[in-house]
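Allow me, if you will, to draw on your knowledge of protein folds for a short while. I have a record of one protein: its chain in single-letter code and its fold written as discrete structure tokens. The full record is reproduced below for your convenience:
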Amino acid sequence: MQLENELALPEVPCGVGSVQSEAVEEQVLAFLDGETHGAELFHALYDHVLDEPIPERMRALFRAGGAD
């Protein structure tokens, strides 16, 4: 039984300017094989989140000091 055929990686949603899913798949496989520490994969998957604006309600919490 071949485990590789049973494990299909889900399609990674790619936004504008993000890494193509094939490249992300290669990075996932390299990470799982222990070839990398996953830093590039982490950036490919999550850097777009840093571009999102902070919601005004959350900003208000920090201004008021209510995020304890």
